[in-house]
Amino acid sequence: METNDDFASIQARHFMQCWGRQKDYQPIPVEKTEGCWIHTTDKRKIFDLRSAHECINLGFNHPQVIDAIRSQLDTVIYVTDDFATEPTAALSQRLATLTPGSPNKRVYFCNSGAAAVEAAVKAARMYKYCETFKSPKITLDAAAQYPYPYKIISRYKSWHGTTSGASSVSGDPRRWFQEPFTVPGVVFGPEANAFRSPFDDSPNPVQANLDYLDYIIENEGGNSKVAAMLIEPIVGSNGIIPPPKDYLLGLRTLCDRWGILLIADETMTGMGRTGEVLAIDHYGIEPDIIIMGKAIGAYCPLAATIFSEKISACFDDNLFGHGQSHSGHALACAAGLASLDVLQAPDFLPEVRKQASYLEQQLRNLAANHSAVGDTRGLGLFWTMELVTDHESKKPLRRTTEKYEKTIVSDLASYLLEKKNVYVPSDKFGIWVVPPLIVTREEIDFFVNGIDEALTHFGL
Hints:
Elements: H1 6-14, E1 30-34, E2 37-40, E3 45-48, H2 51-54, H3 63-73, H4 86-98, E4 106-110, H5 113-134, H6 142-145, E5 151-155, H7 164-168, E6 186-189, H8 205-219, E7 226-231, H9 247-258, E8 261-265, E9 289-292, E10 303-307, H10 309-314, H11 330-343, H12 348-367, E11 373-379, E12 382-387, H13 408-420, E13 422-423, E14 430-433, H14 441-457
Parallel strand pairs: 3-13, 5-6, 5-7, 7-8, 8-9
Antiparallel strand pairs: 1-2, 2-3, 4-10, 9-10, 11-12, 12-14
């Protein structure tokens, strides 16, 4: 094998890059990582403002997590779930306890957020099937006669993963790559976006949004056809959109009224990203199913689907018809436990919230000096700056249909990486500001100044 920097050219020739044109693939050779920084073989030091696909909330090479992984390597790395391991048992119990509601939950482990979404959707449908046929009832309502609740209501501004089922329940443009072979039984509704609400002409846009979702549920067959509603508590890839006040509580009430399940996908927003362990902790709701991924395993692929006591009980006597080879992987669970130990230390999240407050202040100060920044929004250390041509029309500098086209948004990302040593994704609809949770005030100043200079350079 070639050595030194040549490993980057080998990877460029033989590795299939995600969501990219392979002829354009030019990976940057990395020598080491530490904290919030990527060190390249040509001695550049790059700040990772996307936290490695939002997977390293604790930064690179956190010693407590690394020690836990090393220790677990000497005992049990992996056995099938016919056997029990201490970290798998402990992490299952930990997640069942720290999530809202009864601690009598069950947790399914897998390797990615998309796989966890697959498990959630399948379990929701299986649960509604069991609920429907456990007590058969005679009805003249045609909608209730066949077959059983199976539809999933998702939202247009959502991304739940790239597997067949997960992309099918995603509104993101990446779903279009799979059409017309998306999985049937999915209906999309609007997200709750205070900046771009389709209900702006209503005196109460939040209630109008909920009323429209109620309309969708009824016209899709009510609880005779709809199994669940799937949401990101805070929309992630499609714009980091925190919901307006009372929206999630209203959504929980709507689902309860119809007797359908609420699934919260915390793949991006979990593990302290918003200043709480989970984003739903800000809103006081209890979903029926919670999905965690990305940062939960730190440096090991790990995701979890957490089923409430109500859902779990369904599978006491009914087969849970789902599984993956590495479910409950002991090494990954040990990393997950260590990550939670760091996250739940008494001073950790208060410090995150302190830095988050400073970040918000700096971003808002910056936005005030740049006319192209239409909206600055986020929660905790999860922020975006949406870019527009002008404030009155709110016309975006990158439309939904332009996700993978070269626009000034991708030019900004390139400039930040090449000139300011700040790495942000180039396929978003604005500037992605998602630093590791261990970020310092000095590091915030560093990348905010970089963003300021980039916007100035492009006359924005």
